[in-house]
Amino acid sequence: MRNAKALISQRPIVGLGVVGVGAIAIGLGISLIVRGRSSPPAPRAPEIGYSLAGIRRFAEVQPGPVYWVGPRPGSYGVTRTGDGRIYLRYLPKGVKPGASSSYLTVGTYAASSAYAVVSALAAEKTSVKLAMQPGVAAYFARSQPNHVYLASSGYPYEVEVYAPDAALAESLVSHGAVKPIVQK
Questions:
Q1: Over the range 108-143, which residues count as b (16 or more CB within 10 Å of their CB) and which as e?
Q2: Which of 30, 86, 182, 184 would you label with 68, given CA atoms 20 to 30 Å apart?
Q3: 35 neighbors 148 (Cβ within 8 angstroms)
């Protein structure tokens, strides 16, 4: 559990979906306080916009997988942190990258013990564990139902699905919509 807490203390929350540095700092600062975290968030690069073809090309050249919940109308915004986390934000038609509104976002985090961490956190009283197929663990914190985390046994990646509508985030994870953009 100590390793789980250490890994989680390094994971930022997508919550606000805001790319502006000030807004991100405020949102992440609040989440650090709420969840008892003490480490600062990793710095983020500006969000870059992609078309469907562009996001597939982007995913192909990454050293690891980039997760999403399938193609959707509009475009895609990608933000990277200094420690390699990738956030793919679904931007509705007409919304430019860097817009400060909250939208469906999928975060991909490399983590060697992702399955153990997610399994341990899913078992906590403050969490809601989702029923998944064997070898997949998923949960959300009761205090933050818009953020659903999952990991698969044997894969060193944790995925976070954020949606302004908590039911959508839970449904996408529960129904198996979270997949790598390209299979590697």
A1: bbebebbbbbbbbbbeeeebeebebeeebbbbbbee
A2: 30
A3: no
C-alpha distances in Å from residue 152, one per residue of 7, 33, 88, 97: 16, 28, 19, 30
Q: Which amino acid is at 23?
A: A
Q: What are the pLDDT digits (tens) for 110-169?
A: 999 999 999 999 999 999 999 999 999 999 999 999 999 999 999 999 999 999 999 999
Q: How far apart are CA 101 and CA 124, in angstroms?
A: 31
CA distance 169 to 149: 10
Are 59 and 182 in contact, with CB atoms under 8 Å apart? Answer: yes
Whole-angstrom distance, CA of residue 72 vs CA of residue 145: 22
Q: Bridge partners of 44?
A: 81
**From the DSSP assignment, how many helices (H) and strands (E) are in the chain?**
5, 10
Going from N- to C-terminal start, the domains of the chain cover 2-179
Hunting for tokens 């990277």 — which residue is that?
80
DSSP code string of 112-140: TTHHHHHHHHHTSTTEEEPP--TTEEEEE
